[in-house]
Amino acid sequence: MAQKFLENGYEIVDHTKKADIYIINTCTVTNMSDRKSRQSLRKVKSLNPTAVVIAVGCYVQVAKKEIEQIPEIDLKLGNNEKVDIVQYVEKYIKENKNQNQIQDVMQTKEFSEFGDIIYTEKTRAVIKIQDGCDRFCSYCIIPYARGRVRSREPEHIISEIEKIAQKGIKEVVLTGIHIASYGKD
Ligand code: SF4
């Protein structure tokens, strides 16, 4: 998401600094992460009361009612909407109207291609190769936040790694929600 903003001419600043737009990529894996997501959303608005505060990600996806109780949020985006985040933010700014954009992730059948990473803060790159989980363990909310297993095309993964290697990054971490299910779909 940071890369998409950079590509569109935005500047990235530290989240503890004053900014025009704050994006909180929420987590819902435990009650503690729900609480931290809510705290972060409230805190950034106090750094700049006129900033646009965007809640995105897993907690938004599964806790729509709780998220509605946080007046500091201007725009709510689910997991499927991350790929078009810049367009959603610019639409919000143009229309200046509180919005919810949260598709039903359980219906998503295809891996969402974010494009290749060109922006990375570290000497290693984290590359997402898979999303979703079909296991539905009784204690876990992840399948409801991330949807069913979707695997990224192997050619896209290899192509991205080759481009990253050309930039001198020597370590690549392959990541996903349940990577043992890679290719199942
Ligand atoms: S296998 Fe899937 S449902 Fe089970 S704990 Fe891991 S992410 Fe959650």
What does this structure look like?
This protein is α/β, with parallel strands linked by helices. It has 2 domains: 2-103, Rossmann fold (3-Layer(aba) Sandwich); 106-181, 2-Layer Sandwich (Transcription Regulator spoIIAA). Helix content is 34%, strand content 17%. The protein has 7 helices and 8 strands, in the order H-E-H-E-H-H-E-H-E-E-E-H-E-H-E. The protein has helices at residues 2-7, 31-47, 58-62, 64-68, 85-95, 142-146, 154-166, and strands spanning 21-26, 52-57, 75-77, 99-101, 124-128, 130-131, 150-151, 171-175. It has a 4-stranded parallel sheet, sandwiched between helices. It has a two-stranded parallel ribbon with strand order 5-8. It is globular. The model has no long low-confidence stretch (mean pLDDT 93). Iron/sulfur cluster (SF4) binds next to helix 6. The site of iron/sulfur cluster has 9 residues, from helix 6.
- Major sheet: order of its strands? 1-2-3-4
The main β sheet shows up as: 4 strands, parallel
Number of domains: 2
Helical region count? 7
CATH class category label of the largest domain: Alpha Beta
The overall pLDDT average reads 93
The amount of beta strand, in percent, is 15-25%
What low-confidence regions span 5 or more consecutive residues with pLDDT below 50? none
Radius of gyration: 17 Å
Q: What structural class do you assign from the helix and strand content?
A: alpha/beta
Oligomer: single chain
What is the number of strand segments? 8
